[in-house]
Amino acid sequence: MSNQSTSYLTWFNKQGNQHRLIVEKLQAQGLDQAEIVAYFDFDNMVLAEPDFCPLYAQKQKCHEVKQLNCYLCACPLFRFNSKGIETIQGNTVYSYCSVNSKFGHPALFGQAIHLDCSACVVPHSKKYVLKHFNENWFASMASCNLDNDT
Predict the structure, then answer these.
(1) Residue 95 φ/ψ, nearest 5 degrees
(2) Which of 10, 53, 68, 93 has the fewest Cβ atoms within 10 angstroms?
(3) Burial bucket for residue 34 (CB in 10 Å: 0-12, 13-18, 19+)
(4) Are 68 and 45 in contact (CB under 8 A)?
(5) Which of helix, strand or coil describes residue 114?
(6) pLDDT tens digits, residue range 46-87?
(7) What is the pLDDT of residue 149?
């Protein structure tokens, strides 16, 4: 099993737990849905929640978009399986986009194929987040983790 692929599950669980703690804190402050989503604006998160993302330390965005919202810091359309999904020409595919977005592409790392979706900004717009809002990050991302499907 690829070390990169096992890190998906580790990151996924850590991120979901961090997200839950932030949302609970904001709800305790009386913030509503729109205010919670606004709080997750990249510029605010870099200052208010510097440990939420390792890129925040460099003030670097995962996607180059003017108004980056980090509420869905992972994409609900992303799919991963740390055991591998399929083998293509001797290389194991560990992740893909469920809608086969034209903004993502497979990237080969040794014999591991991972989805590179850095050119896609769909889940990081405030409009998308509000449309797909769920205070429970794990519920929003339930379809992403395919490890339990095999």
Answers:
(1) -155, 160
(2) 10
(3) exposed
(4) no
(5) strand
(6) 999 999 999 999 999 988 888 999 999 889 999 999 889 999
(7) 55
Q: Is the pLDDT of residue 1 over 50?
A: no
Specify the DSSP class assigned to residue 81. Answer: -
Whether the predicted pLDDT of 4 surpasses 80: no
For 32-67, the three-class secondary structure string (H helix, E strand, C coil) is CHHHHHHHCEHHHHHHHCCCCCHHHHHCCCCCCCCC
Closest by alpha carbon to 106, among 135, 122, 86? 86
SS3 8: helix
Q: How far apart are the first and last CA of the chain?
A: 15
Task: Check: CB of residue 75 under 8 Å from CB of residue 141.
Answer: no
